Amino acid sequence: MILVDLAFRKMASRGYPSSLTSTFLIQASTVRFLSPSANSQTSYHWTFLQCIILNQLKLQISMLSGMAITYWCYESPAFKTLLANLNNLRELYLDGVDISSSGEEWSSALGKAVPRLQVLSMVYCQLHGAIHSSLSSLRSLTVVNLKLNDGISGAVPEFFTDFLNLSVLQLSYNNFSGWFPQTIFQLKNIRVLDVSHNEQLSGHLPEFPGGASLETLNIQYTNFSGVRLSSFSNLLSLTELGLEGGSISMEPNDLFLNKLNSLQNLQLSFAQFSGEFGPFFSWISSLKNLTSLQLSECYSSKIMPPLIGNLTNLTSLEMTFCGFFGQISPSIGNLNKLTSLRISDCAFSGTIPSSIGNLKKLRRLEISYSELSGPITTDFGHLSNLTALVLTGCRFSGRIPSTIVNLTQLIYLDLSQNDLRGEIPTYLFTLPAMLQLELSSNQLSGPIQEFDTLYSHMIIVSLGQNQISGQIPGSFFQLTSLIDLDLSSNNLTGLVELNSLWKLRKLTSLDLSNNRLSVLDGEGNKSRVPLLPKLSILVLVSCNMTTMPRFLMHINHMEVLDLSNNIIQGTIPQWIWETWNDSLRELDLSNNMFTHMQLTSYLLPYSRLDSLDLSSNRLQGQAPMPNLLKAVDYSNNRFSSVMPNFTAYLSQTVYLKLSRNNISGHIPHSVCDASNLKVLDLSYNNFSGLIPSCLIEGRSLVVLNLRENHFKGTLSDNVSDHCNLQTIDLHGNNIQGQLPRSLSNCADLGILDIGNNRMVGTFPFWLGRLSDLRIIVLGSNLFYGSLTYPTRDRKSREYFSKLQIIDIASNNFSGNLDPQWFERLASMMAKFNDMGNILSHQSFYRDYHDTVAITYKGQYVTFEEVLTTLTAIDFSNNALEGDIPKSVGSLVSLHILNMSHNAFTGRIPPQIGEMRQLESLDLSWNKLSGEIPQELTDLTFLSTLGLCRNKLDGRIPQSRQFLTFENTSYEGNTGLCGPPLSKPCGDSSNRNEVQVNTSRDHVDIILFLFVGVGFGVGFTAGILMKWGKIGKWLRIA
User: Fold this and answer.
1) Nearest 5°: CA angle at 892, between 889 and 895?
2) Structural domain of residue 67, as residue ranges?
3) Coil, helix or strand at residue 184
4) How crowded is residue 1024: how many other Cβ atoms within 10 Å of its Cβ?
5) pLDDT tens per residue across span 106-141
6) Residue 693: how many CB atoms within 10 A of its CB?
7) How many Å apart are CA 125 and CA 123, to the nearest integer?
8) Domain annotation covers residue 823
9) Per the domain annotation, does 972 fall within a domain?
10) Contact at 8 Å (CB) between 138 and 106?
11) Quick one: CA dihedral 427, 431, 436, 438, positive or negative?
């Protein structure tokens, strides 16, 4: 047989290269194996249709016994045409060829076209569908390799058992399901069986017969169960074993497993061992010929056994997501043949053992994402063969050890996400083999000194999120091989002229964001060569830029451009929309001062753009709509209109935010066709008309925010059983009718704000069944009736258990307040020791932060970011009466309590003094009587107190926070006396009172006001407190 290797790689043109004419002179009758394989020496690429169908090669195709056209045919050929006249074919290799156009017919076509086939390899061919029974006719098959075709589904065919000569069955990384035929394990000639990474595939391992020839067995990431290690006792030729899924068991008397002396590669993942882990690891340590060991997600929760040091033939050891804790065993230093060591996402603590310096043959070392701490050991300097050192995501501290200078073969160094301090040694940039340096997310400081770039070959430098100061050394701009430079989020200063980067002709990614730099335009390059011609990612956030970099006009393939948080004024130029319409994926020009856009069409032409952010500018007129975009944010501008029927262009959109503009009109009904839409925010505009019912009823939306518009009508009561809504904010419209009871289908609902509308009905107690509900705002509506729990709901203690804010103010609720109200609010009873998290929605191409507006310290305040620890109750402006329940005192984490403007009687519950987190307490305009409880002086965070217009009497407490309140807190109570009121207390009012000095060390409250960024109107108020309270990102409405 003669092998013809045409060695074609890429198609340079549609013509055929004359340089290959000599190849055609081979006598076609002698050719039995055609292999146009990849060859870096040739830049041409011929498609199958060119080479075979068009007969550019004059071969007798019917005589071919073998064909290999792997990874070269970029078109998707018709599979039946490809197989035509190949009835003598014995070997077929199509790895990487796209056969997807054949649909599900590929397996039936094979069964009919190549009856003598012995070797079939179709790796990563985009195959899909089940394997057709026609394939069963290929009884001569010895090798079947169909891995990496995740579209192949259905069951593994039973007819594989009929392939008596089958020696290799490779079905990994597919989507097989059902029960794996156990008889395949019994095939006498089977040597390699790999069904790993088929997560829906089930089965049992048999007791393998004596004389079995199996050498490789891998069932990792499947659903095999009941795996007994005793099953392998007869597999004396087994060299590679991969187990996972279900329960792997080992009996104490399974000593015969020592017979597996041929085992060289052992992979265990998700293994839940039954019995003791110790004996199992003893078995592993007895495998003297083992060269590769992978323990992944084996949750043993044990100290790392020192027996691992017995595996002295290991060349590769990997432990990831294991439950090992304590220190890494020093016995690891016995493994002096190791060339690769990876320990990641385990629970190890302490320091790295010095014995690791014995592993002189190591070429790759990774110890990452653990609790290891202390200085990085200097013993790494002894590992002179290291090419990669990864120590990311731990708690290493101190300085970068100087012994790293000895690692002259080091190519990749990653020390990111630690607590390293001190200056960055300049020798790191000049190590002779160094290509990639990752030091981001540490505490590194000081300036970076200039270094000699003559022998540097650095291609990636990542130093972001440190405290590096001074100017950017000019040495960086001499690294002519550099492709990625990240200096973001440091304290770098000075001017950066983009022209100075002209030597970085290979640079593809540049990030100088969030420093104290001033970046100047790169136009006017004196070198007369294009500036940064390969650039595809440019991030210059907060770089004090005043103009668009004009050199970008000459960049042909931009993928990510982020110039947000600068002071760029004027017009967004037309070339932004036209130059990269086939390449741009993300464009962020937010938080600038743009006023206009140069456009030839209001339908933007991008074909690949995923995310467009123009928010917080001064853009006006009609807002353009990009077609097929995933995320759009035009919020905080001055747009007055959008394209008619703009929702028709949202077929691929996931995130749409047009809030805080001046847009009017109706929401087109075509919004119902936006089946991928997850976040829709049209708040603070002038939209009107009816809310399309699909926005409430549908299954797609997660966030619906139509706040502060002019919508009217009622809400649909046909909410889907599969509702995904987590936030509904309809505050400040003209919506009427009752709250749809079918909203109870929204099981994940966390925020419901329908305040300031015209809705009616009694209190919706049924909302309490929504276990994730955190915020309810029903204020300023026409709700009425009692707040007493219905009889059917009184027994359940789970109602409103996560509720952190409830606002039912300014309605017509009446009657006594049920004590159970406060007894159910479990989240307000918990004591928090941190600032909490921000309520947000993620995984929608952009994070979306929820907002809420409540009465806080006498003012109506919008919290632009809501912490999970912010808690508030507002029952004000109703007709509630009777005593304030004593159970309110159990809400020890409550920050805001407003029960003013009701008809409460009786005394102020002294239990309120237990609510030590209270910052605002308003009980004014009620009929409360008696004295102010002395226990209220324990509220040391209290900064606003409203007790006016009641019937209180006696002396005003004179300690702690009560020394800071003015007359307005108490006026209208004729029986009260003492400071700050002018009415003195007589002898009859004199009583023994403990005087306690105000603790300024305990709480320091400072009120500050600053202009709200990007909102155009209003201002922001926040509370800065020593103990970190809730005043974060406030805007006074």
Assistant:
1) 105
2) 1-75
3) helix
4) 13
5) 888 888 888 889 999 989 988 888 988 888 888 999
6) 17
7) 6
8) no
9) no
10) no
11) negative
